[in-house]
Specification:
Blueprint (H helix, E strand, L loop, with lengths): L1 E2 L6 E2 L5 E4 L2 E4 L1 E6 L5 E9 L2 E8 L15 E8 L3 E8 L5 E10 L5 H5 L10 E2 L3 E6 L2 E8 L4 E3 L4 E8 L4 E10 L8 H6 L8 E4 L4 H14 L1 E4 L2 E7 L11 H10 L6 H11 L17 E2 L8 E2 H19 L3 H22 L14 E2 H20 L5 H18 L1 E2 L6 E2 L2 E3 L4 E2 L64 H11 L30 E2 H13 L3 H17 L7 E2 L21 H15 L1 E4 L4 E4 L10 E8 L2 E7 L5 E5 L5 E2 L2
Parallel strand pairs: 30-34
Antiparallel strand pairs: 1-3, 2-5, 3-4, 5-10, 6-7, 7-8, 8-9, 9-16, 10-15, 11-12, 12-13, 13-16, 14-15, 17-31, 18-19, 20-21, 22-25, 23-24, 25-26, 27-28, 29-30, 31-32, 32-33
């Protein structure tokens, strides 16, 4: 990847540079023409792996035949993530220009982790090498070569120099290539994958101009985030995001693959195969679990176990991929791994009702119960379809979970009640008065060392115990999944409680106007930039929109959908994983989060889920049917979605301004269900 600010100069400060496999190969690349830097006038992304920076310069003396402020040199820098940069100079002068050009280069060969923590080392000394410069350290080497070769190269200053002559109206181009260890250029990942991408090139057109570029950019970003399993190159999955999370994150890879099922099932197959190889084995209690790191859960709760979430998402993704048309041989190959996930679920729950997170006896989270219930319901349907045992036990447990969740995870208040965000495993019920569980860091040290009164304690004071709070985690209670025939699976909430959750999610306390906040604005600990305590996370907003639409609450779903589309315009149709949850006002724009990944796998995949929710596509490839349940209000007017995939074949549809859907292309034999 390549990172720079909008002026296009790589200054060596912050994250600037070209990267490969988490190491910075070049940190400084500053262009000067006639002793001055070009004046930046525009910077824009061309594709997910390339950007263009345009600048101007006046080099003719002012006392000339045409005095005035007009620039006479146009400078275009096109930068590619594969380690190439082209610098094009165009003359608009009336006479030939003699232009001394110099490029200052440097690097520290630091790792991304060292750069992020501020511990990267000093710049390395350069040496002249092969029409350019080379740097080496104990961890590796990198070089930059230039075409045409420079007229002078100063290793001590890290400079490459050219003396160019531009006739009137002429142009010339310099190209720089960054190499690793002198073994050749960085592999052009994006272009190599374009022809064999597991994602269909879906497109959106219609009355509203925003979905088109948003979907196109999101698919492009997802293709740029594809990784290959090093031991099994045919299996691909998604990196979590750039620049901070360039590796795979199991829970997010599964969630993104699930949201991109309308683009085909190949990504789901590759993700499932790769994660099945990481499953824990043996007779231990964690056998069958897919390991994953802890995730910070905000100010109110201790970190959550993403391994629990990934283990519960595995059978759900396989079951729904089967409905979208995954080949039977792939389903049968992955079914044993899904069975091990479901066995882990039943073993962890034991004779109880609720699933603890992250370990037996741990905290009970409402979203974990939602994930577990969906896994049990869809997993039972999957096992029954292939004549495997265990489906009846899973259904029985899911039924018991629904019954007890509605009684013991619901807090009555003056506003018709709300779900409890979490409960203690000791009581297996809501925390008294709805207060959150104290964070582990807020508990005083069990054996404090005596200190003078003037010296503060070495541990933080306990957090205050705020009252009931609202959380974006409620959106997962509405995500129930699909069963055979395109039927919506039963959820943890009944109709009345679902209506109340919809009201809460659609209230101004949770809906920022740009999307769903992670925490209500009236709750203690709310921070518009808190990534789990107030910021808008695109993934959770998309889950809320799809769940609300499936439950028939189109007003709330439409408001959140329009908010995300408006936010996308401010981000040039490339949504970050999150942004600040400040309230939308007239003339305002969403505030970017300084630590957000952009692009991010879940944000790009969430766009696919948001737009296909407009059509309400509910396929059942094994039965040869597909049902459409579009939003009746047609919030974006007419919309046409083309080049989707259902049953392995192209699928296109049109939703009219009246909210009526019509299939325009589908697989042979695929019937439109009622």
């Amino acid at each position: 990847m390549a990172i720079s600010t909008e002026h296009g100069q790589l200054t060596g400060h912050g994250l600037d540079g070209f990267y490969l496999a988490g190491r910075r190969l070049l940190s400084r690349c500053r262009l000067r023409i006639a002793g001055r830097e070009p004046l930046a006038v525009q910077a824009r992304m061309l594709t997910a792996d390339s950007a263009r920076f345009t600048g101007t310069l006046r080099v003719s003396p002012v006392p000339g035949p045409h005095p005035g402020p007009d620039p006479d040199v146009l400078v275009e820098r096109t930068r590619h993530a594969d380690g190439r940069e082209s610098i094009t100079l165009r003359s608009a002068a009336a006479r030939p220009l003699k232009l001394p050009v110099e490029v200052a280069l440097a690097t520290d060969l630091a790792t991304l982790g060292a750069i992020a923590s501020g511990t990267s080392g000093p710049e390395l000394a350069a040496a002249v090498h092969d029409s350019g410069l080379r740097w080496s350290s104990t961890t590796g080497a990198a070089s930059v070569t230039a075409d045409p070769p420079p007229s002078d190269a100063l290793a001590s200053a890290g400079l490459l120099r050219w003396e160019l002559v531009l006739p009137p109206g002429a142009s010339t181009t310099l190209e720089l290539r960054i190499r690793l260890d002198g073994k050749g250029p960085i592999r052009p990942v994006g272009r190599a994958r374009a022809a064999t991408s597991p994602l269909a090139p879906a497109r959106a057109t219609g009355d509203d101009p925003r979905p088109g570029p948003l979907l196109r950019t999101s698919v492009d970003d997802l293709q740029a985030l594809l990784l290959r399993d090093p031991d099994h190159p045919s299996d691909v999955y998604l990196a979590a995001g750039a620049p901070w999370r360039c590796g795979p994150a199991p829970a997010e890879a599964l969630a993104a693959a699930r949201m991109t099922l309308p683009l085909g099932t190949r990504l789901a197959v590759g993700t499932l195969r790769s994660l099945a190889r990481t499953q824990l084995a043996g007779p231990a209690r964690q056998s069958g679990m897919i390991p994953g790191p802890l995730r910070d859960a905000g100010v109110h709760l201790p970190p959550a176990c993403t391994g629990t979430e990934a283990t519960l998402l595995f059978p759900v993704l396989l079951a729904e991929a089967r409905r979208w048309g995954i080949p039977e041989q792939d389903t049968e190959e992955l079914l044993p791994a899904a069975q091990r996930c479901l066995t882990w679920l039943r073993t962890t729950v034991g004779q109880g009702t609720f699933l603890p997170d992250p370990s037996p006896g741990g905290l009970l989270r409402c979203e974990t119960q939602a994930h577990a219930h969906r896994a049990a319901t869809l997993g039972a349907d999957l096992l029954d379809s292939y004549g495997r045992p265990g489906g009846g036990e899973l259904r029985e447990w899911a039924h018991r979970l629904r019954t007890e969740f509605r009684e013991r995870f619901w807090i009555d208040d003056m506003g018709s009640g709300r779900p409890a965000v979490a409960a203690t495993a000791r009581t297996a019920g809501p925390i008294p008065d709805g207060s959150p569980v104290p964070h582990p860091r807020s508990v005083p040290h069990p054996r404090p060392v005596p200190r003078p009164r003037s010296v503060p304690r070495p541990w933080p004071a306990p957090h205050p115990r705020p009252g009931p709070h609202l959380s974006a985690a409620f959106a997962h209670l509405l995500d129930t999944g699909l069963l055979g025939g395109g039927e919506q699976a039963p959820g943890l909430l009944d109709k009345v409680r679902t209506q109340q959750v919809a009201r809460l999610l659609g209230s101004p306390v949770m809906d920022s106007g740009w999307g769903l906040r992670g925490l209500g604005t009236k709750d203690v600990g709310y921070n518009p930039f808190g990534h789990r305590s107030g910021a808008v996370r695109v993934h959770e907003t998309a889950v809320a929109v799809a769940g609300l639409a499936a439950a028939g609450h189109e007003k709330e779903a439409t408001a959140l959908l329009r908010g995300v589309l408006s936010a996308a315009e401010s981000f040039d149709h490339r949504l970050p994983e999150m942004y600040a949850g400040e309230q939308r006002t007239e003339g305002s724009a969403p505030l970017p989060h300084p630590a957000a990944c952009r692009p991010a796998a879940t944000a790009g995949a969430a766009v696919v889920l948001l737009l296909t929710t407009l059509a309400g596509i509910r396929p059942d490839a094994p039965a040869g049917t597909v049902r459409l349940r579009p939003l009746r209000g047609a919030p974006l007017g007419e919309i046409v979605l083309t080049d989707l995939r259902v049953a392995g074949a192209p699928f296109s549809l049109r939703v009219s301004r009246l909210g009526l859907a019509m299939v325009e292309a589908a697989a042979d034999g695929l019937q439109l269900g009622v």
